[in-house]
């Protein structure tokens, strides 16, 4: 069955149009619209309670919005969910790894969940681990890895099915400064290789001046654009506070 492409589906990366979501009487997202093009690192910056997790849940279809439109790599998430989700990689806030299995065993298990052809799995795993400089860790048990390497493994796992869009929900929670830096560097490299990245965070020091920025506050997009242009002469932290502070 064919259908007319919507404006959102014209974006080969991620497109969101007029998304609303309510928990009972509580509005969590209010007319949220944005685009992230391939080859772009886009930070979704919002204080606690802004609606970031709700948005991630809608993008991954854990929740379904009553209206609005989401398109992943040109596939509408409502009309063609399997195709859209096949183009989406996700790193959730809470690690989901079997500590007793090796890196390769964890990834093999995940490949099966994705329905990747058995014969292709070893090559896919090696390629994904190479992208994160993790191949030499393939035989180690996850419990023996440090927090930074565990996260890198999860990133590699999220890339195994070759997604176009990569979604990360506060991926540096619980990591020390060096590991945080390493993960942010790796994910910027992935954007430079052509991936479309949406990185949800409440930490301004994870955002660079040439990143795209979406500021989410109380369910609404308050600002969008290139980070350096938006912050002007202010530090990002001060500018962000001025955007999101609640008058006393
Ligand atoms: N299950 C729920 N029932 C009712 N309200 C909810 C529920 N989940 C979230 N909310 C509310 O919706 C709003 C958005 O929450 P959400 O968790 O999406 O924000 P967030 O930006 O991810 O915050 P955090 O960084 O603290 O996780 C908040 O006001 C929150 O209290």
UniProtKB/TrEMBL annotation:
One Pfam family, short name: ABC_tran
SMART domains given in the database record: AAA
Taxonomic superkingdom: Bacteria
Domain called ABC transporter: residue spans: 14-243
Sample GO molecular function, one term: ATP hydrolysis activity
Keywords: ATP-binding, Nodulation, Nucleotide-binding, Transport
Family per record: Belongs to the ABC transporter superfamily.
Protein name: Putative ABC transporter ATP-binding protein YbhF
Species whose genome carries this gene: Ruegeria meonggei
Organism placement in taxonomy: Bacteria, Pseudomonadati, Pseudomonadota, Alphaproteobacteria, Rhodobacterales
Name of the coding gene: ybhF_1
């Amino acid at each position: 069955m064919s259908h007319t492409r919507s404006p959102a589906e014209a974006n080969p990366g991620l497109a969101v149009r007029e998304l609303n979501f309510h928990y009972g009487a509580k509005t969590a997202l209010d007319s949220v619209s944005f685009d992230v093009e391939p080859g772009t690192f886009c930070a979704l910056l919002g204080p606690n309670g802004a609606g970031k997790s709700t948005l991630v849940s809608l993008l991954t279809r854990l929740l379904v919005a009553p209206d609005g439109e989401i398109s992943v790599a040109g596939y509408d998430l409502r009309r063609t969910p399997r195709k859209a989700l096949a183009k989406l990689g996700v790193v959730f806030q809470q690690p989901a790894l079997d500590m007793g299995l090796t890196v390769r065993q964890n990834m093999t298990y995940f490949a099966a969940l994705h329905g990747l052809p058995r014969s292709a799995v070893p090559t896919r795993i090696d390629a994904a681990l190479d992208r994160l400089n993790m191949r030499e860790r393939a035989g180690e048990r996850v419990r023996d890895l440090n927090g930074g390497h565990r996260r890198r493994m999860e990133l590699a796992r999220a890339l195994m099915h070759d997604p176009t869009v990569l979604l990360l929900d506060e991926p540096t929670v619980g990591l020390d400064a060096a590991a945080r830096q390493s993960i942010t560097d790796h994910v910027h490299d992935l954007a430079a290789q052509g991936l479309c990245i949406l990185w949800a965070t409440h930490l301004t020091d994870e955002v660079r001046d040439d990143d795209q920025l979406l500021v989410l506050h109380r369910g609404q997009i308050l600002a969008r654009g290139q980070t350096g242009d938006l912050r002007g002469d202010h530090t990002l932290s001060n500018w962000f506070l001025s955007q999101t502070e609640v008058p006393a």
